[in-house]
Amino acid sequence: MLISLVLIVAYIVYAISVMQGIPWSVSDTYYQLDKRGRPKWLFQAAMIVPAFLLLPAWLDVSPVEIQFLAFLSGVGLIFVGAAPCFKLELEGKVHYIATGVCGVASLAWICLVGYWLFPLLLFASCIYLTYRYQRPMFWVECSLFLSVYLTVFCLLL
User: Fold this and answer.
1) pTM, whole model, 2 decimals?
2) 8 A C-beta contact, residue 106 and residue 149
């Protein structure tokens, strides 16, 4: 789980440093890396590898009745990485649907295991971060990533 977290945080920090600013969304970093001559496959690796590494711990701490939500969320993130070109018609549909499944399933899972306060507080911080730095989608995505990792970590304790 920790390796998964380190990889996704390292990618986000790398993408911000390459762009010298906050991207519109985490997915937009795929195009921004390409625009700056950097390997765009890093986005794909940063979505797929952490999802695979997190899934065993995530499924392990999940109550049996809602394990499917952790699975759907993890697989959704894998599909986000597998279909990174959200500006294309077909691949964009896959990307957006996978993003929606990942987001809704992970938020539902967090709430059902009783840690609804994490996303509530983190999404509240999105208001300030959006006011200060704009880019609301980026902050919402980062808040949801952090909410999942915090919840899995707390359940592992």
Assistant:
1) 0.94
2) no
